[in-house]
């Protein structure tokens, strides 16, 4: 007798991920929809589509709202569920079945990440159709980058502690502030060292800006982000595999 | 610990030669705890479908497995309800249904009748008896000694985290027939006659209490009945398991 295939539960993972993936789209629509609609009502779509100051304003609203909803969506994507399953005792039911917990969560992360990228792909498609043509590839690449980096951090926090939300916010806040200060070389040596070992969120912001502008980011930056993300997922799965799941 | 989700504080635990988690990931365990804990927004049938999928039941067979356990546990009227809408007893029946989805070599019930009404407590016993197989281990953790006495072959008495004694419950009548036990006998008439035949008997209205072995009790009852006494009921004051528990934990 052998265990259940990790692929068997895909349908349910997709269903669980759906709401979390729709949330950033709703955030985007709620924030960007109203000002763009009011501009379109006042000046007309033809004026917005004509190259000029008005189009640049609309594109600025689009980019700012897209990055905000992407960051919020990535934060929501994988946060909570490992810790919740453990804290609320769900693990005892889910893992009385012949399944490996780390494979179960790895599949969930993969499905959630793919759905997140697909959901973000609809934003430029709809925006191009309804308002102004905007590129798709940069949004897909940025969404994949954020899903992986923030997802890895959320997964690791959930694997380590039950109050993962607190740790996640602390790490994101500390990383962002310290790394911005480090960029301006305003930190003492120990703090600069800390900024460099924390998740490279400011670097990810820079890479995302380049991707959204249609520029190629530096290969070294991409490699750094990729290795950091892989390390976080690997550590998270190791903890899930080795540490007691009912604690 | 049997699911491999918690390590033992000392010693080692093996199931069929494997570490618990390795065993569970290979074969799965039918598991029902005292409190059913699943995401409360799930609907009953959805929860069973999800758990059947995790149990390794083929997609084509999931619906049949779900219907089988819904029928066995009588939760048909609750199939579309969210788990948060269910009473504690019904939630426990959903847990029981989930534990019956797949055939497992190992079954773990932890305080399984907690929250069940008397009808379903009896039904639960029938279900457990239906699960008996030579190749299957059914482990029941319970504080309800009456329930354990009805269901189990052997009972390990734990106190302060250690096994104090293992009591063989089935077949105890033959083994323990000559051991002295305390009895309570309800006698409609002739209590004094019966009390004279028993050693150190105490009469309390219609009731006679005594300490005697089973053959001695039968002889005394036969003689009393022949002498005109009318016996309505005979029962041990405490079951052999209760007695074993009391002496084992020294309370």
Gap from first CA to last CA of chain A: 29 Å
Alpha carbon gyration radius of chain A: 20 Å
State the assembly state of the protein chains: heterodimer
Ranges of chain B with pLDDT <50 over ≥5 residues?
none
Mean pLDDT of chain A: 91
Characterize the main sheet of chain A. none
Largest sheet of chain B: 4 strands, antiparallel
Q: Which strand-content bin applies to the residues of chain A?
A: under 5%
Secondary structural class of chain B: alpha/beta
Termini separation of chain B comes to 28 Å
**What's the number of helices of chain B?**
10
CATH class of the largest domain in chain B: Alpha Beta
In DSSP terms, counting alpha (H) and pi (I) runs of 4 or more, how many helices of chain A? Answer: 11
Uncertain parts of chain A:
none
Average pLDDT, all residues of chain B: 87
Features:
heterodimer; A: 247 residues; mainly alpha; globular; B: 251 residues; alpha/beta; Rossmann fold; Alpha-Beta Plaits; 4-stranded antiparallel sheet; 3-stranded parallel sheet; 9 strands; elongated
């Amino acid at each position: 007798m052998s265990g259940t295939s990790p692929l068997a539960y895909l349908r349910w993972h997709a269903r669980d991920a759906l709401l979390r993936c729709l949330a950033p789209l709703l955030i985007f629509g709620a924030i960007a929809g109203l000002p763009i609609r009011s501009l379109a009502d006042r000046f007309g779509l033809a004026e917005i589509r004509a190259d000029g100051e008005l189009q640049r304003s609309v594109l600025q609203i689009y980019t700012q709202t897209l990055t905000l909803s992407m960051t919020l969506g990535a934060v929501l994507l994988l946060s909570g569920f490992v810790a919740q399953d453990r804290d609320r005792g769900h693990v005892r039911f889910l893992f009385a079945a012949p399944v490996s917990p780390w494979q179960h969560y790895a599949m969930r992360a993969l499905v959630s990440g793919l759905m997140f990228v697909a959901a973000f792909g609809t934003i430029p498609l709809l925006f191009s159709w309804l308002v102004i043509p905007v590129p798709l590839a940069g949004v897909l690449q940025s969404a994949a980058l954020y899903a992986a980096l923030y997802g890895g951090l959320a997964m690791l926090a959930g694997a380590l502690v039950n109050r993962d939300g607190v740790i996640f916010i602390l790490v994101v806040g500390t990383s962002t502030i310290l790394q911005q200060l480090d960029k301006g070389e305003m930190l003492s040596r120990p703090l600069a060292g800390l900024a460099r070992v924390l998740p490279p969120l400011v670097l990810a912001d820079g890479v995302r800006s380049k991707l959204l502008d249609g520029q190629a980011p530096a290969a070294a930056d991409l490699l750094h982000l990729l290795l950091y993300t892989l390390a976080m997922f690997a550590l998270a799965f190791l903890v899930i595999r080795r540490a007691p799941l009912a604690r | 610990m049997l699911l491999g989700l918690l390590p033992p504080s000392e010693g080692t635990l093996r199931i069929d030669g494997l570490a618990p988690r390795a065993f569970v990931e290979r074969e799965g365990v039918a598991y029902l705890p005292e409190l059913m804990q699943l995401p409360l927004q799930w609907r009953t049938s959805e929860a069973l479908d999800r758990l059947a999928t995790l149990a390794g039941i083929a997609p084509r067979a999931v619906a049949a497995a779900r219907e089988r356990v819904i029928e066995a546990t009588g939760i048909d009227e609750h199939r579309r309800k969210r788990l948060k809408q269910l009473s504690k007893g019904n939630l426990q029946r959903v847990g029981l249904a989930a534990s019956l989805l797949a055939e497992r070599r190992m079954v773990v019930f932890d305080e399984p009748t907690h929250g069940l009404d008397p009808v379903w407590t009896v039904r639960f016993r029938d279900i457990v008896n239906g699960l008996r197989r030579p190749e299957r281990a059914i482990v029941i953790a319970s504080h309800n000694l009456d329930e354990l006495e009805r269901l189990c072959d052997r009972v390990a008495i734990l106190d302060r985290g250690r096994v104090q004694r293992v009591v063989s419950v089935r077949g105890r009548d033959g083994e323990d027939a000559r051991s002295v036990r305390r009895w309570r006998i309800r006698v409609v008439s002739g209590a004094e006659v019966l009390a004279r035949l028993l050693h150190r008997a105490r009469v309390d209205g219609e009731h006679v209490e005594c300490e005697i072995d089973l053959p001695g009790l039968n002889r005394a009852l036969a003689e009393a009945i022949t002498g005109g006494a009318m016996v309505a009921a005979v029962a041990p004051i405490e079951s052999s398991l209760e007695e074993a528990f009391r002496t084992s934990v020294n309370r």
